Amino acid sequence: MTWRASVLTLYPEMFPGPLGQSLAGRALADATWSLDRVQIRDFATDKHRSVDDTPAGGGAGMVMRADVLARAVDHVLEQRPGVPMLAMTPRGQPLTQGLVRELADGPGVSILCGRFEGIDERLFEARPIVPVSVGDYILSGGETAAIVLLDACVRLLPGVMGAPTSGEEESFEAGLLEYPHYTRPYEWEGRRIPEVLRSGDHAKIAAWRHQRAVEDTRLRRPDLMERHGDAPGHPPSGARRENEGK
Ligand code: SAH
């Protein structure tokens, strides 16, 4: 079944953009997923087709109008019953691999992309829209955030990635960063691949990888370590790799 993405944007020509290449592009071409681009401006009603207005209370910039956005959102909700509607905003819940997996397991996703100073807050009160942030920094628009979200979802769709298990083995899936990777040449600029990875001893390799995942997470992302304090009990997923040690 096709996983259906809809993007509500003032810049539909930004899509599929990078999602038209590589894994996501191939999956789009073979209808593993579909992409609908909805021009928000088509739902404006005045003769200037305006979608924004000055901020109530004063201040810089412009704010996207609730009435225009609601018409666009209602149109998509009607066309796609049961598909969750998200809005990209730095005020939203942080995008996590957990949310990505949940979305990828569902029928698809609709994404409202903000521009200017953002979206009239009343829209979030009046419609079932989940605000989502891609991180604690400010982008110029929601489109690149939507591309990030879609890329993360599409690679999890059945058949998109080469190895069926590799998606379950990566950073965050077990609440940890992934262990570090190495490949040939064995020696490069005087540095050797860790000996254990050449041992052929799968249990030892798995234990080493798990240990590195825990260590690196503790060092680089103490916040993750705290949040997933008991996750290190997960089996070291790398042990399942077929081409290991070759
Ligand atoms: N004035 C707003 C930022 C507006 S940026 C604020 O300070 O919160 C314009 C648009 O870019 C937003 O409406 C949103 O759709 C998108 N955007 C910017 N940063 C984002 C982020 N970290 N995550 C998701 N969307 C973001």
TrEMBL record:
Name of the protein this chain belongs to: tRNA (guanine-N(1)-)-methyltransferase
Protein family (similarity comment): Belongs to the RNA methyltransferase TrmD family.
EC number(s) reported in the record: 2.1.1.228
Region ranges (Disordered): 217-246
Enzyme class: transferase
Main location: cytoplasm
Keyword Phosphoprotein: no
Comp. bias regions, Basic and acidic residues: 217-231
Locations listed in the record: Cytoplasm
